[in-house]
Design brief:
This protein is an alpha+beta fold and 373 residues long. The chain has two domains: 64 residues; 198 residues, PPM-type phosphatase domain (Phosphatase 2c, domain 1, 4-Layer Sandwich), CATH 3.60.40. It has nine helices and eleven strands. The strands form two sheets. It has a six-stranded antiparallel β-sheet. InterPro entries: Bact_Sigma-Reg, PPM-type-like_dom_sf, PPM-type_phosphatase-like_dom. Pfam families: SpoIIE (PF07228). This is Serine/threonine-protein phosphatase.
C-alpha cells in the first residue's frame, strides 16, 4: 500500500503565518491608531487586516499547490512501478501502450496491461478493474504482480488465469479485513461486494498463433492492411471475482497474427466513450484512419491517432479510464527473406487468405455498440 504522510509545517512554512498573525495582533493592541473610532482610523485598520488576510490566503494556496505537486509526483512514481512502461520490442513484436485516466490531473487509473516474453510465447494481459483512480491501484498491483510471476511458471494459459483469480480473491479478502477490523480472525463471507475485473489473457506463439482466454473483456481488433476486424465475437467467461472459473478451462485458438499485422487491445472505456450527443466513440474508424495514413501501421502512431480522436470526441473529458495496447508482428515468414529496399512490404492478406492459413474461422460477425456501463 502506498501512503502519503502529512508533515507538520516546519521552518519558513510555519514562521510566515505566525509573523502575519503577530503583525495583526501587534497593530490591534499596540498601535494607537487602531484604538481610535474615526472614519480614517477604521479605514486604515480595515486595510491592515485585508493585507494580513490576503497574505495568509496566498500562503495557504501556495502550500496546497506544493502538496498537490508532491502527490502527483508520487502518483507518477507509483504508475512507473505498478504499470511499468513496456519495451518497444518483444521477441520480434513492435509494442506500444498508454492509458488515460478519467480523474482530472491523475496519471494512474483502474486499467492494467502487461506483456512478457516466456518460453511458452509472448503472453499479454489487458484488464479493467471496477472503478478508477487511486482506489483501484491496489487491485491493479495484485493482479500484475501475480501475472508477471505466473506467466513464466505456468505452461498453459489456463493456469495463469487461475493464478490471477486466486490473487484477486486473496487481495479482496485482505482489503475486507483492513476495511472491517471487526472481521479480524475470521473469513468474511463477501470480501468486497460487487468487486470484479474484466480481463483478456492472450498468448502469441513463435509462429504467430493466437490463443486467448476472455473474462468479460472486449475482444481486440486485428489490423491487416487497411482492414480492421474483431479478433473474436464468442461469448466470454464472466469477469473475475463474480463467479468461480469453470473446471474445464482451456484457451481458445484465434488464428494467427501474420507478419505486418497488428493487434489492438483496449479497455471498454474506449468504445463506451460518448460525445455531448450521447454517441459512442467509433474505435474501428479511428484504427482504420491510422492504417490508411501509414503502412505498415506504427504502434505509437496508432496510439496518437486513437487518443487524439477520443479526446476530440469527448471534449477532453472522458468519463472512464482508457488503456490501449498495440502489438505489430515484425517477424519474417519462415523461409522468406526480410525486405531490404525501403518501402518494401508484403501484400496484406485478406480475410479469406488468413482463414486458409489459420484454419476454419472460429468467430464471425461485426462488433456492435454496447450500452454504457
Amino acid at each position: 500500500m502506498i501512503r502519503i504522510k502529512a508533515r507538520a509545517p516546519t521552518g519558513r512554512g510555519s514562521t510566515l503565518p505566525a509573523l502575519w498573525g503577530a503583525v495583526a495582533v501587534g497593530y490591534k493592541f499596540g498601535c494607537p491608531l487602531a484604538q481610535q473610532n474615526g472614519l480614517g482610523a477604521r479605514i486604515v485598520t480595515s486595510v491592515v487586516f485585508l493585507v494580513v488576510g490576503t497574505g495568509l490566503i496566498c500562503h495557504v494556496r501556495h502550500a496546497l499547490l506544493r502538496e498537490l505537486r508532491l502527490a502527483r509526483r508520487v502518483a507518477r512514481a507509483a504508475q512507473s512501478v505498478v504499470l511499468r512502461p513496456l519495451p518497444p520490442r518483444l521477441d520480434g513484436l513492435a509494442v506500444a501502450a498508454a492509458q488515460l485516466s478519467a480523474d482530472r490531473g491523475a496519471s494512474i487509473g483502474g486499467d492494467l496491461y502487461e506483456a512478457v516474453v516466456t518460453e511458452h510465447g509472448v503472453r499479454v494481459v489487458m484488464g479493467d478493474v471496477r472503478g478508477h483512480g487511486l482506489a483501484a491501484l491496489g487491485t491493479v498491483a495484485a493482479l500484475l504482480g501475480s501475472f508477471r510471476e505466473a506467466a513464466h511458471d505456468e505452461p498453459e494459459s489456463a493456469g495463469v488465469l487461475r493464478r490471477l483469480d486466486r490473487a484477486l480473491a486473496r487481495h479482496l479478502r485482505e482489503r475486507a479485513r483492513a476495511e472491517h477490523p471487526a472481521h479480524a480472525g475470521r473469513e468474511p463471507d463477501h470480501p468486497v461486494a460487487e468487486e470484479f475485473v474484466t480481463l483478456l489473457l492472450l498468448e502469441i506463439g513463435k509462429d504467430g498463433s493466437l490463443t486467448a482466454l476472455n473474462c468479460g473483456h472486449p475482444w481486440p481488433y486485428l489490423v491487416s492492411g487497411t482492414s480492421v476486424e474483431p479478433l473474436g465475437s464468442a461469448e466470454p467467461l464472466p469477469p473475475l471475482g463474480l463467479f468461480p472459473l469453470p473446471a474445464d478451462l482451456a484457451a481458445r485458438p484465434c488464428g494467427h497474427l501474420l507478419p505486418g499485422e497488428s493487434l489492438v487491445l483496449f479497455t471498454d472505456g474506449a468504445e463506451d466513450a460518448r460525445d455531448a450527443r450521447g454517441r459512442f466513440f467509433a474505435l474501428p474508424e479511428a484504427l482504420r484512419a491510422a492504417a490508411v495514413r501509414e503502412q505498415p501501421v506504427s504502434p505509437p502512431s496508432v496510439l496518437r491517432t486513437v487518443f487524439s480522436a477520443l479526446l476530440a470526441h469527448t471534449g477532453g473529458r472522458p468519463t472512464d479510464d482508457v488503456a490501449v495496447l498495440v502489438l505489430r508482428n515484425d517477424r519474417a515468414r519462415p523461409g522468406t527473406p526480410r525486405p531490404t529496399a525501403p518501402g518494401t512490404a508484403r501484400t496484406p492478406s485478406t480475410h479469406r487468405q488468413r482463414a486458409v492459413e489459420a484454419g476454419p474461422p472460429l468467430f464471425e460477425g461485426e462488433p456492435t455498440a454496447r450500452p454504457a456501463s
